[in-house]
Amino acid sequence: MNPQLPRREDLPQRPTTVPSKSYPELPDIDDDQSFAELTRELSLYFVKAIETTHSFEQLRTSSVGHDLRPLITYLSKTVHHPAIVAALLSAHITIGSKT
What we know:
- By secondary structure, the protein is mainly α.
- It is built from 4 helices and no strands.
- It has helices at 35-49, 56-61, 69-77, 84-97.
- The termini are far apart.
């Protein structure tokens, strides 16, 4: 016997929209925060925003990096902390050593 294939209308329908993931809360960065506090805030954000290990290139060019867009916008338009670049590098090293 030849099994019958289900009719197209009997198949479950794919959702037309993908539920959006909520972004982690942005860190509250003040110009007078200590370097350690700043690094900790950034590290916590990255851990919440990035669920699996990705290369820098993947974060930069694929959809997995979209969760970092709010942080990037916030840092570039609002934050004027003199150690922000050093804290970003430190957060990267700190997180990288734990993976």
